[in-house]
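Table S2 (continued). Query chain:
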Amino acid sequence: MAEDIALIYTVREATKLLHLSRNGIYKAVSEGQIPHIRVGKRILIPKIALEQLLNEACKKSEVK
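Corresponding output:
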């Protein structure tokens, strides 16, 4: 499976992984909530950055 070895995700792939709308991903990117790389007009989301973001969110929710 290509998803298992992907190091970077497109916005479309991120929508499927995070179960968010395309607009939701673009909003989170523009607000700096999702780390990303711009290559021309494309927005790419590194897998490691996404994993760190999710791990931090889980830690914060466990503290409450």
